[in-house]
Amino acid sequence: MAFEVRIFPNSKGKSLYATSHIPMGTLILEEDPIVYCQFSWNALCKYKACDNCLRPLETAEENVRRLMGNPLFELPYPDCCQTDKNNSTSCDLCGNEYCSENCKISAFNQYHKVLCLQSRERNNSHPIELLEEAWKNMHYPPETSSIFLIVRLLANIVQASNTDEAIQKVLSFCHKSVNEEAQLAHKFLGDKFIHQISLLREMVANILPNPQISQFLTPEGFQSLLALIGTNAQGVGSSPFSAWRQNVEKLNLSSKDREKINNIVDTIYDDMYAHTGDFLNSEGVALYLKQSCINHSCDPNAEIKFLHNNSRLFLVALKDIQPDEEILISYLGECEINRSRHSRRKLLMENYIFACECSKCLEEIDQLDVTSEEDMSTEEDN
Ligand SMILES: [Zn+2]
Ligand SMILES: [Zn+2]
Ligand SMILES: [Zn+2]
Questions:
Q1: pLDDT tens, 33-58?
Q2: Domain membership flag for residue 207
Q3: How far away, in angstroms, is 94 Cα from ligand 2 center?
């Protein structure tokens, strides 16, 4: 391994450092999440993906037919579709779908055993159904997080053979102060719903009334969990059509065939936007042990990718990284990262509660505290 996690006693906490030279383009690490869950509204839209790892469970053709609202559409180059439905399976008790026997067993052994909502229990008043409804009423699409990540995390502890070890794993994420946690919990739920924090806590406790997790179901413990999810949860998405398109791009086609397929792809996108709108992927949120140790820079030397069209995360070097150099990613989106120093730092403070002191922010320290033009309007809204 070309990196190590270093722990600092000050507020910086954990950091990832290179231990040897890492050339640009190198895959630094890959890892599966401790826990993943699909967004509630996303699941309702019938995006078919593995309940454990997000791998698509429909073919590229089925995917575009559904999103275009055209059940007869025929997608060319079917061999470019990556979806392998031969291995897909489902939970015998509740019908949750998985990409493989492996995912089904690992979900059951880690958290699904205590969360399996058997079909005979579905009556619109089961604690899981009640939380699902309450959460959907608080978070309309586009969804950015999910209370069910907390539920699965707690179920992991309940089912763990070594409870203390499982609790320590969760606590290793928490290194915010009480005040920062309160701000993050507020951000997680938003102004309108912050007073419902105790309702959510009771609903989660009704799903998992297990003594092993009582420390996380006190008002302070639950607020820590909300803060944990608020700062560490990573958005993930998958799309069988995107995977198909990438494979088509690699085909050796005549310029005439290339033009033809490009036109077909354009039409598919137009039709999908017209029928479904912007949200064309299966989407969810996940929690990663190593990735959560990586700090932010507005001029990062590494980036996160999802190369397998599922929740497995890859960290790739954007530049040459020297031994003893810290490995840094950007917590900001593609557009946000190009905003002014003032705007970037405001976003980071609001969403992650830290004042960015990265090399770019230090370099631009003389820049006036101006707000980028593109976010003037959003600031005025606030
Ligand atoms: Zn899977
Ligand atoms: Zn089940
Ligand atoms: Zn910065």
A1: 999 998 888 877 778 899 999 999 99
A2: yes
A3: 4
| Residue 295 counted as domain residue | yes
Q: List the beta bridge partners of residue 5.
A: 16
Query: Which residues have CB under 8 Å from 60's CB, separation 6+?
Result: 75, 78, 80, 81, 82, 83, 240, 241, 243, 244
**Domain, as residue range, for 368:** 341-382
Instruction: State the distance from the centre of ligand 1 to the C-alpha of 33, rounded, in angstroms.
Output: 12
Ligand showing the shortest atom-to-Cα distance for residue 94 = 2
User: For residue 73, what pLDDT is reported?
Assistant: 96
Q: Which residue type is seen at 236?
A: V
User: What is the count of structural domains for the chain?
Assistant: 3
**Nearest ligand, measured from the Cα of 102:** 1
Q: Give me ligand 2 centre to Cα 76, in Å.
A: 36
Ligand number, closest to the Cα atom of 128: 2
In terms of C-beta density within 10 A (0-12 exposed, 13-18 middle, 19 or more buried), how is residue 219 classed?
exposed
In a shared domain, residues 103 and 207? yes
pLDDT digits (tens, 9 = 90+) for 147-187: 999 999 999 999 999 999 999 989 888 777 788 888 888 87
Please, are residues 8 and 15 in contact by the beta-carbon 8 Å criterion?
yes
**267 to each of 11, 86, 260, 261, 272, how far by Cα in Å?**
51, 30, 11, 10, 9
Question: Which residue type does 106 have?
Answer: S
End position of a domain, from candidates 191, 215, 234: 234
Does some domain include residue 259? no
Q: What is the dihedral of CA 112, 118, 124, 127, to 10 degrees?
A: -40
229 and 367 fall within a common domain: no
**Which residue, chain included where needed, has tokens 């997080």?**
145
Q: How far is CA 172 from CA 7, 30, 199, in A?
A: 11, 20, 26
Instruction: Report d(CA 303, CA 45) in Å as an integer.
Output: 30
In a domain, 46, yes or no: yes
| Residues contacting residue 237 through CB under 8 Å, at least 6 positions apart | 54, 281, 282, 283, 284, 306
